[in-house]
Design goal:
It is a single chain. This protein is an alpha/beta fold. The chain has one domain: Nitrilase/N-carbamoyl-D-aminoacid amidohydrolase. Helices cover 26% and strands 26% of the residues. It contains seven helices and 15 strands. The strands form three sheets. Strands 1, 2, 3, 4, 5, 6 and 15 form a seven-stranded mixed beta sheet that branches. Strand 13 and strand 14 form a beta hairpin. Helix 1 runs parallel beside helix 3 and helix 4 (167-175) packs parallel to helix 5 (191-207). It is globular. The N and C termini lie far apart (40 Å). The model has no long low-confidence stretch (mean pLDDT 96). The structure holds 2-oxoglutaric acid. One of its GO terms (molecular function) is omega-amidase activity. Residues 9-256 form the CN hydrolase domain. Belongs to the carbon-nitrogen hydrolase superfamily. NIT1/NIT2 family.
């Protein structure tokens, strides 16, 4: 008889050192995923753009199919061999039907089956004069759906990096019963120190849910300097675990009872004034 007690959720964020060598990136990801699993992790996350350098010029060159490309095959095998859920960071995806390129996260169950995909819906187009200009839309197209997946632990919402700046997907995920939002991401050394942790804590606190981010490690010889600092934040907005900028694995045992406890202590869910503003989770686009 199936037990109704959810399994303990041990999260691992792989802050991977990404290089220009796709095969090496896949091999490095695999060895870190298996290492995390050997330490008991059953929900493992890779960073945004883990198989390619992060830059609009690289996306067309590295893009591949998520039906049968080498990266999804490798990710499926990693999840299966690790016997863990795997949120497979993101890769540049080329859609054979429309010919467009997307920044896409693929998600696997412990049998290695793909159980979800998320194409980044908010493209990272910013211009901070003298600091950073980045226009993902030069080579990428946006996805057109929000993403939630079912796991043995409960439902999880998934976004990618810049998606975290928008409160709505996390709010919708929380109201639809997700216990966590997970964002593979790659902030930079300009916006990272300003907003990375703040956004993560805001999404967690507003929604009284877990939020995790997973960045590539920083490479000062690359054209894009990732912020690192992959982190896990609890439903009270508390940083549970984090790291610096180097390659690392961040582990956290998620105590899912904290959500109910915190929601009981500060019962925002019962106090909302939907007579004054809309419930965004009930507004269909
Ligand atoms: O929002 C930011 O400041 C950074 C976003 C980003 O790096 C991304 O979407 O990949």
């Amino acid at each position: 008889m199936a037990s109704s007690v959810p399994k303990a959720c041990k999260l691992a964020l792989i802050q991977l050192a990404v290089t220009a060598d796709k095969e090496a990136n896949l091999g490095n990801a695999r060895s870190h995923v298996l290492e995390a699993a050997s330490r008991g992790a059953n929900l493992i996350v890779l960073p945004e753009c883990f198989n390619s350098p992060y830059g609009t010029g690289y996306f067309p060159e590295y893009a591949e199919s998520i039906k049968d490309g080498p990266s999804v095959k490798a990710l499926s095998a990693m999840a299966k061999d690790a016997k863990a859920y795997l949120i497979g960071g993101s890769i540049p995806e080329r859609d054979a039907t429309d010919g467009k390129i997307y920044n896409t996260c693929t998600i696997y169950n412990p049998d290695g089956e793909m159980i979800g995909t998320h194409r980044k819906v908010h493209l990272f187009n910013i211009d901070v004069p003298g600091k950073i200009r980045f226009q993902e839309s030069e080579t990428l197209s946006p996805g057109n759906k929000l993403t939630q997946v079912d796991t043995d632990f409960g439902k999880i919402g998934v976004g990618i990096c810049y998606d975290m700046r928008f409160p709505e997907p996390a709010m919708i995920a929380a109201r639809e019963g997700c216990f966590a939002m997970i964002y593979p991401g790659a902030f930079n050394t300009t916006t990272g120190p300003l907003h990375w942790e703040l956004l993560q804590r805001a999404r967690a606190l507003d929604n009284q849910m877990f939020v995790a981010t997973c960045s590539p490690a920083r490479d000062m010889s690359a054209s894009y300097h990732a912020w690192g600092h992959s982190s896990v934040v609890g439903p009270a907005g508390d940083v549970i675990q984090t790291t610096e900028e180097k390659q690392d694995i961040v582990y956290a045992d998620l105590d899912l009872s904290k959500i109910a406890e915190f929601r009981q202590n500060i019962p925002l869910g019962d106090q909302r004034r939907f007579d004054l503003y809309a419930d965004i989770s009930k507004v269909n686009p």
